[in-house]
């Protein structure tokens, strides 16, 4: 890093050190760029200290990754624009750091002038989709706020999260398949594990001694929006904002329940970047496969989509015990790198189909409860009336495995 002292109104001095980006940083920022290229908005992350009520913060920074040529990147111009978007006073910035060979900019907030924690907390809460779109116009692909040592730890941990091809699976007849609860001798706690038919798992190598580490931990699923999948893996798992059963992280023993568009966005595959991943499919959904220590599942409750007893959601489970609330330890973000985490993501479940998944036989329960066109509620990826017309016309849907 090199310090660039701010001289308001001056030209960018463009002083660069000889220190290159580390391998962990390169990998981390490349993932952030992939997220940015697909979603069109930057990946935003914050350290726990910003969000927790229990911590004080004496030093913190804002860090940005900008998709610009570092040789022509104009720091003063960028700072003026970013302060305007985030409602920051440029005089409250003590100094900046520009990393060699990249447009990675770090802004150090002056703690003698402002309350750092309150300032960054306010910035974090102001980051609406509209604000993120404004950041994207400045070609910001990544934004971090908080203690930089926390970011370094995140980058190191994420570099160690790698796919574990030995445990990648396709779940269906003719692939990996079983009926009822899996009986393979492994200790998965008190909750049974059922075959997630139609899904492909990309397993993460999260621990060298997996069976010992997760002995007694049950398998659960956490649905996510398409744009949040990478964000969750990089930044941590955010507790539910709409706490219908109570405070905590929501999960389910049933991937069928988790795949409802309230929880797992149905995304139509459109862009070139998306088709690089899903060549022959038309729709995709993401669900996180997690391990959860049974004692941390504080509530085992009924479904919250208004199904009641009208139809069985999952033939393996009663509708009355299909939703879990996991103890979030009063954290606003549950970081997978935390050794005391109550929930750990061990794989990414992907379902790719040739037509809308709402046409699948296992999705017909959707129409007996809540489903709507409001994207803030149900991310259908299609107009509900069009989907209903296809359903009434008997249009079929098939899984795509590649």
* Poorly predicted sequence stretches spanning 5 or more consecutive residues: 1-18
Record field, number of beta strands: 15
Output mean pLDDT: 82
Strand arrangement, major sheet: 1-4-5-3-6-2
Integer count of domains:
2
- Rounded to the nearest angstrom, the radius of gyration is 23 Å
Order of helices and strands: EHEHEHEEHHEHEEHEHEHEHEEEEH
**Outline, from the CA principal axes?**
globular
Number of helices: 11
Give the strand content: 15-25%
Walk me through what this model shows:
The chain is built from eleven helices and 15 strands. With 402 residues, it is of the alpha+beta class. The protein folds into two domains: 2-159, no CATH class; 161-392, no CATH class. It has a six-stranded mixed sheet, sandwiched between helices. Strands 7, 8, 9, 11, 12 and 15 form a six-stranded antiparallel sheet that branches. The longest helix has 17 residues, at 23-39. The radius of gyration is 23 Å and the shape is globular. It starts with a strand and ends in a 10-residue tail after the last helix. The model is unreliable at 1-18 (pLDDT under 50).
